[in-house]
Amino acid sequence: MPDSADPRPLSERPLEELVACPECDLLMHRQPVEEEHKACCPRCGYEIIVHRAHMERRALALVLTALMLYVPANFLPIMKLNLLGQTTQDTIWSGVLGLYHSGMDGVAVLVFLCSMVIPLLKLLCQLVVLLCIRWQVMQGLGLYLYRLYHHMREWGMLEVYLMGILVSIVKLIDMADLHLGIGLACFIGLLLSQVWLEVTMSPHQVWDSLDAGGHASESA
Ligand SMILES: [Zn+2]
């Protein structure tokens, strides 16, 4: 991010004109970034600001796609297993119940939280935040939910769950007659739309849109 031609030192500039690199703490003058452009830290190369065109509309489409995939991904069969004449169908929900009934209550609760509850809460937070930005209403609630979303980010572990499913498929494929279910396709779709949503929903644009009212009143 090149520095401005403005000769004032950083200490004399208002806070909203400054930006700090989250990676190496370098303080810089904040430059306007054009659509589909990004600003990177000149010291460590971290992507500080990225401006996505039509961010809310694209992110809303992705969050709705992810929410529509959520139910089939969790409740439709991930795989159908035929072993010694016995056929079983497994879903993510039946996996949680199976852990619970085999006495691993703690693991069942952890899997339930990290693979079902937190991913759903994250998506609902993102949906409400995007609607607050779109309709310019309840921005205080939007700020609160976006902060909450950042706290939950590390706890949604769909990738880990997918890795577990892939490992079990590789292990079981030689031992039993294995058929992959529609639930697995929905689960992969859910994971991909979540990753795409995270890339599309530029944090700086979200914070700026939610905080626009607050900044206006502060600088007045
Ligand atoms: Zn940096």
UniProtKB/TrEMBL annotation:
Q: Where are the transmembrane segments?
A: 59-79, 99-121, 180-197
| Keyword Transmembrane assigned | yes
- Sorted alphabetically, which keywords does the UniProt record give? Membrane, Transmembrane, Transmembrane helix
Q: Is Transmembrane there in the keyword field?
A: yes
**One matching Pfam family:** PqiA
InterPro entries, per the entry:
PqiA-like
The protein depicted here goes by the name Paraquat-inducible protein A
Q: Which organism is it from?
A: Pseudomonas tohonis
